[in-house]
Design brief:
Radius of gyration: 13 Å
Number of helices: 2
Strand content: 25-35%
Shape: globular
Helix content: 25-40%
CATH architecture: 3-Layer(aba) Sandwich
Distance between the termini: 33 Å
Oligomer: single chain
Structural class: alpha+beta
CATH topology: Trna Endonuclease, Chain: A, domain 1
Length: 119
């Protein structure tokens, strides 16, 4: 199983790029240290109906595939917190000057998701 420092650095770079994008678009963000919980990035902002929140699992890949157990934990935690469960794909995590290729999906069930526009 792949692991070690290099994948962790790539994942952290993806999380930081995700956070920079969200901050540039009016979100307050925080990162889960060491990504030990069900979410990597928590994002909040004032919306038309009050506070909006997203619990985001960031993947430094083009597809943001989540393992079934990882998805289930995120769905359950987001539901309890009243947040949107979101997966974010960051295929080029070291390209800090561009957000090209980033994709966002709202997780809608154990095996389904829908593109999330206007993040």
């Amino acid at each position: 199983m792949p692991g070690g420092a290099a994948p962790k650095r790539k994942g952290t770079a993806g999380e930081r790029l995700c956070m920079a994008y969200l901050e540039a678009n009016g979100w307050y963000v925080t990162r889960s240290y060491a990504s030990l919980g069900p979410w990597d990035v928590l994002a909040m902002r004032d919306g038309p109906r009050g506070c909006e929140a997203m619990m985001i699992q960031v993947k430094a890949t083009a597809t943001a595939s989540l393992a079934p157990s990882e998805r289930a934990r995120l769905l359950a935690m987001a539901h309890r917190a009243g947040a949107l469960p979101v997966a974010c794909a960051v295929p080029h995590p070291y390209a800090s000057a561009t957000y090209e290729g980033m994709a966002w999906w709202l997780l809608t069930g154990p095996a389904s998701r829908t593109p999330l526009l206007g993040v």
